[in-house]
Amino acid sequence: METPQIEMGGFKVNSPQVPNGVLRPTVSSSWNSRGTVERALKSIRIVIFTSKLNLLMPFGPASIILHFTTRRHGLIFLFSMLGITPLAERLGYATEQLAIYTGPTVGGLLNATFGNATEMIIAVYALKNGMIRVVQQSLLGSILSNMLLVMGCAFFAGGVVHRNKDQIFSKATAVVNSGLLLMAVMGLMFPAVLHFTHSEVRQGASEVALSRFSSCIMLVAYASYLYFQLSGRSNIYSPIGSEEAPIEDIAEEDEEAEIGMWEAVTWLAVLTLWVSFLSEYLVNAIEGASDSLNLPVAFISVILLPIVGNAAEHASAIMFAMKDKLDITLGVAIGSSTQISIFHFVLLLVG
């Protein structure tokens, strides 16, 4: 006697009658597990094997091997730096894929946050090792790199591709971010001025009090900025000429996601952990690399480390500028600098 089958939600269920009249289903889900494996393999192929920059990934494990087998800190530093570079770029890619599912506003925030993850991890390890000057210089270098190198390369690439037209961007977007940057500069500068002018009423106490007060003000300003972005009340981030349209209708992306949402989340977690792992070896080799390569620690902190950490922003900003999306380019470059200056500095100061 042939066993009847019932289709339930895409599954075929065998439903033989048992003596008490209750159905005892047997679900066949082999096709489901096969599909999961295929999606996982496709995700690995897209994330790992589609970017030529990933050819640098083997330098990461090589730096770990060198750390335990040799004392050549210069090579360890260079290999760690080369190994982190593709990871930072892939972090940006995974964030962009996740942004397709979350929408443009949350996606922009995720892009700025995870784009700065590399700098933040390196700064945390440096602070843990007592390298305060390296922390200060690396964060300062990240701000300068985003504002000058990343934005300059993006404008140049956009101008070359669209040489026959004028590229435009929203003035209000630039004004908001520039205002926050100016406030961050003032908040960081006032305690330094008080320290170097020796005009404190109470030696040391006034400087600390002013630093804490400035930190609180910057945190409140950054929280307000996030609320302003996420509330969706303003259309100033809309493209020029379409101020009356809702943001959600304007920001419809033509591109489709190459990987699933949870796959993007998984890759973000995996890549962040791997960057964190390599950053420890990178930071531990900074001073030795400075001696062996005959490079000042300031040059390594201000120039080399930000270039590695800003790989994701660099690639994203240039790509959007070449697509004539200067508003997103400014959001990536200036937004990243804003987050570092007004949030990361304060977070590390508290830590």
UniProtKB/TrEMBL annotation:
Gene Ontology cellular component?
vacuolar membrane
Q: Which domain of life is it from?
A: Eukaryota
Membrane topology for this entry?
Answer: Multi-pass membrane protein
InterPro entries named in the record: CaH_exchang, CAX-like, NaCa_Exmemb, NCX_ion-bd_dom_sf
What family classification does the UniProt entry report for this protein? Belongs to the Ca(2+):cation antiporter (CaCA) (TC 2.A.19) family. Cation/proton exchanger (CAX) subfamily.
Q: Which NCBIfam families match?
A: cax
Q: What does this protein do?
A: Vacuolar cation/proton exchanger (CAX). Translocates Ca(2+) and other metal ions into vacuoles using the proton gradient formed by H(+)-ATPase and H(+)-pyrophosphatase.
Q: What is this protein called?
A: Vacuolar cation/proton exchanger
Report the source organism: Zea mays (Maize)
